[in-house]
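User: I want to check something. If I give you two sequences, will you return the structure for each one separately, not as a complex?

Assistant: Yes, each is folded on its own. Here is the first sequence with its structure:
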Amino acid sequence: MRRTHASDFQGQGNMAQRTDHNMLEEENERMVDHLSSKVQALKSLTIDIGQEVRYQNKMLGEMDTDFDAGGSFLSSTMGRLTALTKKGHHRVMLYLFLFCLFVFFVAWYIIKRR
């Protein structure tokens, strides 16, 4: 009788082990699926970040070109102003200074009224 009882207990133990094993396998499958969805979301996010970085680099390149063009324009203007001051046209420089001063005060007055 003891053997019969022991064999029944071992059969139940094997069945409990199988059930535990199946439960662990199901849990592992759920966790793998969950992890897979997270990896897919991260992959999508990194692709979007890569596209944004390419777009931003393109815009920075265009800005660099625009600033270079603006810098060359300003340097040529400064060259002309330097040539103008060396020629001795002080009256033109005085008019330019007064015009800048006038524009400054008009802008200051408009801003102050708001």
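And separately, the second sequence with its own structure:
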Amino acid sequence: MATGEKGNNVYEELISEEEWRDIINKKVKTSKFDLKNVSIGPLSEDQVGFMGDHLKLTASIRLQDGNQKKLQFFAKSKPMHNDAFREYVDTIKAFEKEIGFFANMLTDLNKYIIQSKEVLEGGDDGSDTCSWTCKCYLAKPDIVVLEDLFAAGYQHAAGRDPMDLDHCNLMLETMGIFHAASIIFEEKQPRTSACGEVTQIIDIYKDILFETEWVTTEGHPGNKFMKASIKGMVSMLEYLPNYGKNHENFKMIREKLPKTLEQMCEYVKPSTKYRNVICHGDLWINNVFFKYNNSKKPVKVKIVDFQLIRYNPPASEVMWFLHLVTRKDFRDANLDSFLTTYYKSFSTELRRHHLDPEQLLSWSEFKESCDYYRNAGRTAAALYFQQCMVTGDYLKTVFSHPDSMTMFQIVDKSKYMIECYNNDPVFRERNTEVVEDLIEHCILNK
């Protein structure tokens, strides 16, 4: 087998020739080909992902009929160039979660799904029953090889821009189908006991459905990350235009903010009141890809990056998503419509599989749970925007040195948050909005 040029490419040993052939076999659906050349390397010089290295794979083959093809794939590996980053990912076991999702859980979520007309007629390669995510060709401890969504015509929305109505509605419809898959599996899987209790997917996948970030365990990297984020937010408080250092309740706000943010550790736990499903756990703009029609309208979406999956009520994910991708006035004006769009998709998918949504998660229960988890969305936005509203160039600088990366991730974000707040108008505007919204609803008017 001919491979790419040898040198200091640390990724070349991650995939054997046999694995390359298996990947290609799954892609072209035949083992009768000659493998001419393969290559693997970084997707970009920039810091693209927070939980691993993003890679571009290519393979040149000649089929039995003489036709030659150049195939493209996307892959993620554990961090290979930053020891501190790799230690963080290894300790919270984020990569293990994604491997477990693609290697095993996705098969279960597909198990009882009735294939769509598009799949039955050969659309999407005729093999994509879970239309909400990409295909996986290889999943093992150090690397996962996936469909190249860019090559398939998908693209990211702008990283720091809020989503418009079309993007939000398409995402909510897709999330409804994704969340319904958990319930379809649990309801159709054989019962676990003589009394007929429904199988819970969390009991099958305890090894990957643990919480990675929002934990109370002292010394856990996720707990350190939360504390570093809380310090970063407290450092920004005095600059807020409405609740800053001159506000009459500033001292009280500063005292209550840490405990308010720590409530995230409760929000992420499986509910004992509402029906739980597999939630992505990290739905923001960078983790979704859209395909557009000729009128530039989004018509398909794929959800990627399953390193923070958890078992939570659907409302938890819906509220997180809406608070992470929309502005407050727009979200408030369209919230009822958004919830209706989501539930229509969710309930339609359940009915398509001959299940009654009113018995499993009724509209009234869903609305009630959304009211509860709205503060979870506010909290998530306040914590996440410290990172996802930072520019790529700034993150590249911070993550280029292990000491600064460690300080930013698990020690204290204060220095970086103050710099971004004072020098980046977009960061300042978006963070001001979400932090003041959190203060208003979760501290002052609780």
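Because they were folded independently, the notes below concern the second chain alone. The beta strands are 33-42, 53-63, 68-77, 136-140, 143-147, 277-279, 288-292, 298-303, 310-312. The CA atoms of residues 3 and 139 lie 21 Å apart.
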